[in-house]
Amino acid sequence: MARLPRLTLPGVPHHVIQRGNNRQPIFASAADHTLLLGLLADNAKKFDVLVHAYVLMDNHFHLLVTPQTQDGLPQMMQAVGRSYVRYFNDSQGRSGTLWEGRYKSTLVQTERYLLACMAYIDLNPVRAGLVADPRDYPWSSYGHYTGVRNDKLLTPHPLWWALGNTPFAREVAYADLVHTGITLEQQQRLTQSVLRGWALGDADFVADLQKRTERRVSKAAAGRPVSAPKSQ
Questions:
Q1: With the C-alpha atoms ordered 124, 111, 64, 232, is the resulting torsion angle positive or negative?
Q2: What's the Cα-to-Cα distance from 59 to each of 148, 177, 212, rounded to whole Å?
Q3: Strand pairing category for 60-67 and 104-107
Q4: Residue 224 lies in a domain
Q5: What is the pTM of this model?
């Protein structure tokens, strides 16, 4: 079966994941993490993509972004991917591919899933058993949103600003949100939607997206009414 074209729409949050080939490590040192974050910051600015959250894991990374143009996200990911592979191959004395094919992404309903997606991303190191507290993981957006550091890569979403009237209130509210965690259903929906490329949101959100693109946005069979994606 031919793969679906990647779905990208400006002004809508996108959850993105890029994996290493055969789940191999894509980082060998702290310098590698820093280099990739710098590439993301430079190219997000160049291609007009707002980055709201990220986490760099051993063999993959997640992003939550809102592209401002139709082609901004794929252009950013292509530029970052190519530059990082050249750097990593040179530094490690290797050749060949680093990525497991093209990146995967999905559109996320802002009101229903954006903050949950941020928490999902920042909780990745905890779920993987790398740290007990997300505050202890240096390669995620959690530190920025809880006042530990200032991250030039990130553009906070309006929903984050609405968490409180002062920086301290927002930081405490976000820390509480992450430490409360997300439900198993939310985790499954967030995982399956990004891996399969189906839009994540309620029926109205999915139906509205479908009006904006010829590419199917949910798992519904062609010719049938569009409905909200179900957890797998």
A1: positive
A2: 25, 26, 34
A3: unpaired
A4: no
A5: 0.91
